Amino acid sequence: MNPHTTSIGAVVFDIGGVLVRDVWEHLLLDPEKSVAAVCGLDMKEVADFAPALWRAFELRPCSETDTPEALERQYWERFRSRFPVSLSIDELIAMTDDFICPVAGMTALLESVAERGIPMAICSNNNEFWIRKQMQKAGLHRFFPEERVISSSRVGAVKDSPGFEMFRAVTGALGRLDGGTVFIDDRFENIVRCRAYGWTGIFFPQANSGGAGYLESLFERMGW
What we know:
alpha/beta; 2 domains
């Protein structure tokens, strides 16, 4: 790689909805393939319950007893205690795996960023079991060393925390940069937060299949 002068010092990506298809909303609420649809559950009741279920695990790190596998089973145990579905925990986990796939065009974009020698990191509100599967199934470890994969479950804070803990952890992992940091996320409130921290924020159009091309055109304008 031959890094060249650029205004982009580093690129930081959210993972769910940007690099990999967002899991929990589609898994629980997709009108045709979600757990709610397959099991005939009331969509509104599931939608009301889902955020609390997510929050119960987004700040929980792994431990000797709480392995990623154990945490994932606990997640579905809580779901099944609220909704007595016929699917087993193993079947629900298998459904999860079907919802994890790379966002179109983003692998090629990551290759382009890497070829230019621009450092990259991940900054994601995420739980330990899904982020590991997302990294593995999308082949993201070849772009992001473990120390540059920053998740709320490991930091103990989320992106909208007033202390900017997530962004500070990314800054520490990236080190000194020549140029500014660009952050890409599919949730506008996170873009607002990163701008308050001093980064350049780009809102990723999750629902648009041309998101990767959109980013590439912006990077070109930024002189990458």
